[in-house]
Amino acid sequence: MNHTVQPFKISPQAQDWTVVGVATAxxxxxxxxxxxxxxxxxxxxxxxxxxxxxxxxxAFFFYDVPKLFLLLGGMIFVITLLQxxxxxxxxxxxxxxxxxxVGNLMAALxxxxxxxxxxxxxxxxxxxxxxxxxxGVTFSFLITSPLMNEVAFVLLIGLFGWKVxxxxxxxxIAIGVISGLILGRLKLERYVEGFVYNIKPRANVEMLExxxxxxxxxxxxxxxxxxxxxxxxxYVIVGIGIGAFIHxxxxxxxxxxxxxxxxxxxxPISTLVGIPLYSNAAGIIPIVSALLDKGASxxxxxxxxxSVVGLSLPEVIILxxxxxxxxxxxxxxxxxxAIILTGYMFNLIx
Length: 350
Known about the structure:
single chain, mainly alpha, 16 helices, 75% helix
């Protein structure tokens, strides 16, 4: 009697977890060798003198590029995997049911966990207004979303540690909540373009909670990681290039004099300079790192970063489609003031 031997098969879920395990081991290995590799590439292979401006710039570039991409790829995968357990539609319904205060906090927290830049968060902001959510609550989301995303948080952890990243997270959410409360109390609905309120919101449809297998969650996290890293790829490269130039060629005394704690005007000037610029967190944080290496104060540099990512010119242009100039001016003024106060706070406590 013949017995057919069944081949051993690995389930798709086991295959996915095996790939994740191998990728984790490779990630840890790569993260531990990038610094000596950058030094070897700059000072041995290219034979640049240690301490030279070009050598320091290239070593900074060769180290930070793989380091930041490893941090982005690893941490964003974990964060987006966790996001598969968050039902954004339920969060939105919960925000709609809350008044000011609790609603502002929920909107700010929702903005902190959604991976939107200042421009991509505007359409969702418009949807909130059309759905009848209070204007101050919608502003809490619009303010927090670009300031606090996983890219900014991950890079801050990698470059400055958990303490600075935690303070930045707290301050970003606080700015969103407080600014939203202020804007809501001012009763500025008359400065929203009329057509926004004339659009009928879509009927609420109950969404069945989606039950995903772990393999599906892993695939979604991987797809999101590829998408996010792909979107910020050139921002990271350009940002690190600028940071490398600052690291190697800009004199420390020059930056310390402009962006140090001793100059009281450094925080507001840095905030104003950042408003007309546009970048995302991935592009600006490497520049922040280089500025800090040169002696700039943390609060001043973070105020500059907040104004770049949270008050960008493209965002203002898009908002002009739905907000009148008076409200845009008030919006910029309130956020800029909050950012300046946050910069002073960081300079005082760190």
